[in-house]
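Case study B.
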Amino acid sequence: MDVQESAAPAASHRGDGNGSIPPFERIVADYGPLISRIAMSYEADPSLREDLTQQIFLAVWQALPSFRQDSSLKTFIARVAQNRSISFVTKQVRQPRLAELPEKLEADTLNPEESAIEVNEREMLLEATRKLPLPQRQVIILVLEGFDYSEIAEMLDIAPNALALRLSRAKAALKSMLEQSQ
Amino acid sequence: MTDFDLDRLGDVWRRQPDPAEMARLQRTAAAVSRRARFSQIFDIVAGAAVSAVVIFLVWTNPRFETFLLGAAAIVVLLVSNMRLRKLRQVELRSLTGSTEDMLDQSINRLETTLKYKLFSLIAIGPALAVGFLLAWAAGGNPGVPVAPALRLVWRGTTFAVLAGGVVYLVFAIRRERRELQRLRAMRESYRLEGESSAS
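Model:
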């Protein structure tokens, strides 16, 4: 995936066209998995992760009235979730633990064998992502979430060239970690 | 996982959670929004109740002093509400802005809190000295007759509160210093990342 070739993928939930913010329940149904994955990539401890997930939901609930639709709702929620996760992590005295609960990652559409392989793959990916330095982790999470590069650059408030460099470093680090973990 | 294809990894990453996990997320979110709504309503009702009590007291005691105290109570209520609202807005702005801005704001806020707590810790010594001096100047006479047992309880409570306050401050300062170190390290990692991207 190259920065230049990035088209807008599945991430373009730009507003809803009529200027209104969907109800919170709808937002949870649409973006709950995104929030859960972001919480998972910052916090390995299940009880702390539950706490973090609640804090993200609360932050989104409080921030929604300030959403001005100058970006997509998904971008807005991902930004709030990442910032809340980072401030949560700074408050933790211990270092984040690295391996946790693959059963939470189970998908519902695969047979048991495929599911086991995919769970293992996701677990490795999650572990490797958690080991990345924060600026690189942010970029990788957003790419994995399917945001296009212009959205990521806007979200992180960095120039496209800087994003390309950061992403290439993050990809190299992630690749090396995934190879080591095999 | 031998091939490294971010698009494929993205598909693996974004696979929908199972229905049980999704239901758990929805329950969590519903509980959070319920609590947040309750908290909002509580703030409004509490403010209205305090204002109503103050107005009632002034209404039933129409004197200059009660009017003055009532007006002061309303002003304090308004100012504290406005301050709280401003703090929430600042926090929201930091959550919806860039991560670097959020880290800068968090560092500034924590530095201010730390200064305040350090000052409080240092001020306990001189404050105690002034208290002892005042007690000495009064000749140990509190001005009203107090039973010796009550005096002992009073002194014990005062000592416990002061000791508790000092212990709390020491631990809070240590915890916040560690948090500040982590925040600065994070900020530094962003700065280095930005510098190496620019060069």
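Chain A is about 65% helix and 0% strand. The remaining cases will be described in the next quarterly update.
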